[in-house]
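Would you mind writing out the residues of a protein together with its fold in token form for me to study?
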Amino acid sequence: RGERVSGMMARGGSRKEGKRPPRLDFDLCKKNILTKLDKSPKGSIDAPIRSLVAGVNGLRDYVTTSTCSGRVAIFGSVEHVNQRSLAPGRWLLVKHAEVSLAEIQAALDAPALAEAEARDGTSQVVIKVEPAILHILCRTMEAATDLLQVAITCGFRESGISLSSSQKIMVAVRTTSNSMEAPPGAVVL
């Protein structure tokens, strides 16, 4: 079976004999992506990378499918002292830009977290710094390889190329080298 599958793949076939996916019309796909509304929870492209996204989308062989400029987030949850389990938490701060010390202090002083602490026990707070990520659909494997090389050279070391069963060639531009997740502290009542 392994030889048959690898032989079919080498000839450009799909795993199901006789079922070859239709050729992707990149230009139509790009047009559809660029005319659709932004479906992200935020509803818009992050300001710090708008010019980058516009530049990528202005190139003939590429279109962004999802992007994030990176974010700073503080998440708070409550550990129930009697049950030793974490209750559902809430985002105390989410910002796709630089944050000030005053914004962090305000998030950590959130009234909802203080009420939950008083009622249930110890708060568990985590501050996260997450780097930018972009998913870019590419016209050809050559275009994807060129883009991947640029991404890696720019420090996005965990970037890669994915090939879908519908013949889409996607480059994920990402890194974890600029990530951080740490508890700024816990308050015991």
Notes: The first strand starts at residue 62 and ends at 68. The longest helix spans residues 141-153. The two ends are 63 Å apart (CA to CA). Helices lie at 2-10, 26-35, 50-57, 101-108, 111-120, 141-153.
